[in-house]
Amino acid sequence: MFKYIRDLHDLNILIYTVNALAARMDSAKIVTLLLMISFFRGGLSRCDIGWVNENQSCYYFSRFSTNFYTALSFCKSVGGKLIEIDSRFEWNMIKRHVQGRRFPDFYIGLTDLFSEGDWQKATTLGRQTFLQWGNGQPDNAGNNQHCVQVYVSAMKFDDLWCHYDRHFICEK
Ligand SMILES: [Ca+2]
Ligand SMILES: [Ca+2]
């Protein structure tokens, strides 16, 4: 799938570099190099390549857009969840990243698919109390909007038709 193309590209560069160096280094140096790489990845960043480390969590900013259900299952398939914004602190951190990288409108793990008007966390379930609705939202347009996007022009929540394609953020 397209999900790892850039990550694989990064990994391939790493492997290529190690191979190139290995041709000119003895095994002790190679071991040292590998230890340094693992320290770098484990010590400075707890996250996989392509994920951002913030406050003991890792965040993945999608490089493609898709519908809500695919976003939800994609995040699960990589061992995380579609982002659930639980606090003002996390929200401010996400805002900073979204604005910094000019990230487009995106899905978050918030839905009223279970019960109209009852906004639940999509993966861990339970009612969400941190809400940032935009003006006039949620409006359940067409009596059929049950998934939540953040529209970045105002950094506000909007309920949306779940089949619409949007970027998304995973966390783990
Ligand atoms: Ca709804
Ligand atoms: Ca709406």
UniProtKB/TrEMBL annotation:
Domain of life: Eukaryota
SMART domains named among the record's database cross-references: CLECT
SUPFAM superfamilies, per the entry: C-type lectin-like (SSF56436)
InterPro entries, A to Z: C-type_lectin-like (IPR001304), C-type_lectin-like/link_sf (IPR016186), C-type_lectin/snaclec_domain (IPR050111), CTDL_fold (IPR016187)
Membrane-spanning intervals of the chain: none
Pfam families in the cross-refs: Lectin_C
Residue span(s) of domain C-type lectin: 54-171
Protein name stated in the entry: C-type lectin domain-containing protein
Organism, scientific name: Mytilus edulis (Blue mussel)
